[in-house]
Amino acid sequence: MSQNPSDFGLVIVPAGAGAGKTHRIKTQLSDWVKRKVVRPERILAVTFTEAAAGELRERIRAGLLVDGLVEEAMAVERAYVSTIHGLGLRILTEHALAAGASLQPRHLVDAERDLLIRQALAHARALDPIKAAPERFGYQANWQKGETVEDALRARVLAMIDLLRGLGDTGRDPSLIASALARLDRVYGVTLADPVAARDALLAAVLAMLAAFPDGGMATVTAKGPRETLEKNLSLFRRIERDPALLDHDWSVWQSLRGLFVSNSRTKTPEAYDDLATAIMQAADVLPTHPGPLTDAKLHLSCLIACAQEVMGAYETRKKALGLIDFADMIAGAERLLRTDPAVRQAVLDEIDCVIIDEFQDTNPVQFALLWQLGARAPRTLLVGDVKQSIMGFQGADPRLSQALAEANPDATQPLDRNWRSTPAVMQFVNALGAGLFGARYNPLAPTRDPVPGPALEVLQTVKGRGVRNSSKPQEHVAERITRILTSGETITDRQTGAMRAARPSDIALLICRHTTAGRYAEELRVRGVPVRIAEDGWAANPLVQAARAALSYAANPADAHAGLLLRTFGPDPLSLQDAMAAQIDGRLADDPVLMRLAALSDRLSVLPVGIALDLVLDATGMRRWAARQPDAAQARADLLRLEAEASDFESAHRDLKAASGFHGETIKVFLGWLDARSGDRDFDRRPDPSADSAEAVEIVTWHASKGREWPITVVAEFDHRIEEWPGTTTTRFDALDRIDDMSAVLASAALIHTPGFAAPEAERRFIEDRRVDFEANAKNLLYVALTRARDRLVLEWPSFLKARNEEAPEANCLFHVLEDNCATLIAGGMLRIGGIDCPAVITQLPEHATATDYAPGSVSDAPLFGGYAPMPPTSLTPWRLQPSQATTADAAPDSRGVILGAPWPQTVSDVARGTALHLAVRTFLTRPDLATSLPSATGLDEATLTLVAERAAALKAWLTDQGYTKLHCEIPVLGRSAEGAEIPGTIDLLAVGPEGCLLIDHKTGGAGVGFGPYWPQLLAYSGLVDSVLLGHRMRGVGLHWMDHGRMDLVELPATVGVE
User: Fold this and answer.
1) Is the per-residue pLDDT at 114 higher than 80?
2) Are 599 and 557 in contact (CB under 8 A)?
3) What phi and psi values does residue 639 have, to the nearest 5 degrees?
4) Residue 400 reports pLDDT greater than 80
5) How far apart are CA 89 and CA 370, in angstroms?
6) DSSP state letters, 326-381
7) 859 vs 864: CA distance, rounded Å
8) Which residues, including other chains, have CB under 8 Å from residue 312's CB and lie 6 or more apart?
9) Which of 366, 404, 391 is nearest to 162 (CA)?
10) pTM score > 0.85 for this model?
11) What is the per-residue pLDDT for 884?
């Protein structure tokens, strides 16, 4: 076996966009397996999605088959290629005793997790200072979204919990609070020495204004705008006069006092007003250095961290008591087990020849620690990823970990240097972009594809912004350009055939930054008739879902007139609102046929599982038929299926968890309440995608969601998206990255970095600027991901409408600024200059108003419907499995002849409760008399009873021998099928075999002692099983051995009987 340096140790493969990282993994593994360096079943490969894991497994298997390694390809099925969560669960399950975990943990679904955390959160005391005055800490209700103050606070705590759990055991360390508060002090800077004097000075200035101008200085002001501003100022002065304590904690009041109205060229205030207003503003201008806002920010952060840790502790205790596990446990628990138990770690290592980790840059700290426990010690480890594409920071991913690992192991780095995705013209732009964004850290990629005709770059210069009213907005221009690409026959290269063909909707992707923006672009495309695929909200408010919920409500309570009205005016075959209201007023609404059908179900639904109840309600209302008639029938059906899936999740959720959160019972009403309670969950309102990847439609995805994808034509929009870190954001920092080989030390060095919100913009700005390096680095990665998705053509929505930056504040605040600052972009003469490289481009100066081209391809049509809708005819169901005693036959039990085997036993011996013991005794005496001495202990029967059984067995055996049945087989398991397809498993007590056939005998105790009675169908089924399963043994007869009666009834059979 030949060896090379990559056969042992660590190999790190930086793989730029389109560089073929999966191909590298496949070829490396195929090479190792082919040279017998690695056994295929001892491969451990980790990815971050189930789809990626499946694809990797198939590509490894395909590569081995191409090389003729069939057995090795089959062995790949036993390899452990999974997601990181699958790896963690496997470790915890296989080593449950060492982990102190349940041997069969039940996985918590997201809804159950939220319920448990909410329960723990309700009892947490750490939040009491915030709950006492939530507005003081920036929490307000959002009535437009239906969010309460409690919802906003809970969301902040849940985000903190997710962040801390990503740190593993370090996340529970109380010392995290002290270091986080120390950073707040450092960034905030020197504070005002005497805040009490500042407060008194401000109050005195306000009171002086009120004393001089009790009317607010409006005597000489008539203009509407200034007068309204003066009225607001006066109202503020009077609030302070009534409650001077506002100045001790309401920092928004201080900020408002910094911007009072004073005279301008158009409007003059009364004499002396401006001087008093200026005095107030000067007194309030100390706010950016006032210690009060800092004190509140520190209290806020310490409460959030302490509450998160308190809830985490209660949550973990409750889960362990219930034997539950969630996704975070799969990682944190496995990492802890490998770190603290070397024997378990070595046991895992002993089962693997190599460790392969894909997308390594997207690991969060505890995931990194888990993987590195194995990767650092495995015989060979291959890490593949691209730090430049690390954009999952919002999910806790930290690219600094993998970057530090690469910097600590420079000799192990083997970057890929080719691109297999894009044309040479596109790659010219991509390489110039990469060099501009990342400098010397960028490895240029050589294109492998041939040039193709047509433009590789398009720049759509949009001169009007998103808020204009009298001109077309950017989304209108972009939608128009996409429509024209489709209607004018512009070409792309077919990925499968390599031939040029006209672009189809599915060849185009539109990349945006926000889901709200995506909806606006989708609307413009739909106006033009272009089909669209988009992950959009609106599931709960969808008419179909609303109608289905109303139907459930009415079925659960036929007195619910509101639900009845909603269903009949909003749902299938609707009534007009006027007719429905008239019917309700006249008392006739309940006589509506649809509502009558639902009312008839009411009593049944109260005892049925929610899933079955929902199915009955949907059938009774014709909801599925209505969904099929919707303009987008596929989406409508997907929305209904999502509701059915929610019902299934409700049924599977642990009853105790639901009860603990106030959901008692399993009825429809409780289910509807469950849905309402989950309405604020992330992505709960997201509509399901009915088409997966098969839809012939333009796909609209976020920049983040485009990662790992590619399209022939990619349109990138929303470069004006804000990049600055939002106030309230908390992230992590590690001070021991230079010790990356010791992940315990790295995790222990974790610090929380919080960006608080302040009323004074100067104070808030200090914290934002402290984070600039990090959020600009993330913006660079995001730009690189979005601008490297195109195979043939890249279309850029160029935000020419952005205003020039202020010389006093030249910092980048949007994605385009980062691109501009790092790549020195310039458009001129049919060229887009990027980092000094001139890339040919089609430059389009967009007009003020966009046109609206219609897209109406002849090939796109609705699927035909053959015939009208009609319910399936009712059919009787066949059980999938029958016991032989359940078999039925139309024939009555035939006459039988009796064979006397001895005298009846006393009644005490014929106790049915001992039937099993008697069967075992008869079997032993018939086939293994040498084991008879063990029967007293094995059966519990006394010597006298065993003597009777031995005599009966001897008489039966003698009679069978006399009839020519010399071979006896006992307790034979068989499995057959009825004519209807049901399985019939069974066990034959005794099969006596002779040269001319066999005799089936069933032992019975108790009963009448004569004839076959109710046992005939069972024995007939058994005889049929013998005929079909034990081929070559013709069934000659069936016997029923009444052991306690000393008699056997016998029926001779024709050649074929029973089941097939």
Assistant:
1) no
2) no
3) -65, -40
4) no
5) 12
6) -HHHHHHHHHHHHHH-HHHHHHHHTT-SEEEEESGGG--HHHHHHHHHHHTTSSEE
7) 13
8) 161, 164, 165, 171, 172
9) 366
10) no
11) 60
